[in-house]
Design a protein that fits this description.
The protein is of the alpha/beta class. It has helices spanning 12-23, 36-44, 56-59, 79-82, 105-111, 147-170, 205-214, 297-322, 348-358, 393-410, 417-420, and strands spanning 4-8, 27-32, 49-50, 65-70, 85-93, 101-102, 116-123, 133-140, 186-187, 228-231, 234-237, 240-244, 253-257, 260-264, 269-273, 276-277, 338-342, 363-369, 379-380, 382-388, 413-414, 432-435, 446-448, 452-456. 28% of the residues lie in helices and 24% in strands. Helix 1 runs parallel beside helix 6 and helix 5 (105-111) runs antiparallel to helix 7 (205-214).
Amino acid sequence: MTLTALLIGNESLTVECGKRWLERGHTLAAVVTREPKVASWAAGAGLRVIAPGAGLVERSAGLTVDWVLSIANLSLVPAPVLALARAGGVNFHDGPLPGYAGLNAPVWALLNGEASHGVTWHLMTSGIDEGDVLATRSFQIEADDTAFSLNTRCFSAALDSFAEVITALEAGGYPRHLQTAGARRVWRRADRPRAAGRLDFTQPAEAVARMVRALDHGGYRNPLAVPKIEVAGQVWAVGFAEVIAGAGAPDAVLGRGPDHLDVACGSGAVRLTALTCLKGLPIDTGRAGAMIASPTADEAHALQTTLAPVAEAEARLRGLLLKADPLLVATPSDAPDWQKIALPAAGPTWLALAAIRAFGRTGGDIAWASGSDPARGYLLPWVPVRLDASGTVIAAEARAAKALDAARAATGLAADLALREPALSGLAPSGLAISDAPGPVAGTAITLTGSAMWHDATRISA
């Protein structure tokens, strides 16, 4: 019996499973993907390619399939799309259920010190990773596993078990079984490691090194955090950590070199290497004193609280940064000459929209800046804002007000985002900013505040 499926996913695993489905003699009605490489494979195989996101229900209307296959797809499948399948939907999950539902399961398994991990193929319901199980694979977590290597092992386990899934689907989705007993935990996109990834040297050396490995994505996108230490009022990124022989009071620096620091832990010691600032630039290990302070419980809680809205907004803001359209390109001056011009009563939002039109455009990105820095070193207190100046002034101002309200809710950007996102070469505000503070924003050419227009005379004339 030949089965028809709608394949949804954005990774190489999507392609490999799609190939195996076709090799088994079944068909694909379409492939839903935002990933160019997946789309290229599908088009080359003569398959219809459908873009995901808003409008997916309309774009997939009229399809009739036996199964929906959600493989390496991190978004919930809309109920009307799932309803296109006569028999139901199947999802691949890169963790054991029910304890590791949601996102980034391999990372959380490492952070939590699990001894084993696994993958799950399950039937889809309206909930997150809740359906009956068709196939699983389990394996031990090795002492040197990183987020990258554990993700790779999940990939292998997925391919190894997919034939079993196809066999079950050919039998109408049987055999299936309930998820194992145990506490259910859904890991959200906005969940972050304790203290934004800042290392706690009061823990055993093995736990400190494991945290660094858990956040090591091997050069691929890191959706959570970069491991960090605080040194001389700065926040440094840690690339690698290994357990070494040594002992001392936790936080004590036992040794150093041009490219490493040796730090005592609650038991044992670690060597930290590939140290940079959060801009990715080399640092001077000589700046580290005799101790590197671990975060206290209060500091960890404060960081968690302050950065929670930043994490919630990150997916949306990341999309803007990856497709940036700055109204004014930022070219920071080493010695800015800030000049102040009083604003008209209309205020900064109206003037920003007027500036967009003055540049002969109908839209573009500016920056909104909070003017405060509640988590210095961990937070960039500005966010990109895309303004649409088309149409009437009233309509444009309403859209701008909504966009600025969203920016204020986000509060800022994670300072380590550029290190985590390979497609970003750095983070700098647009040359034009609106600030809730009275003064200019560093790195901009024009800052609009509630009472003044500040312009850097070294970059733009009055």
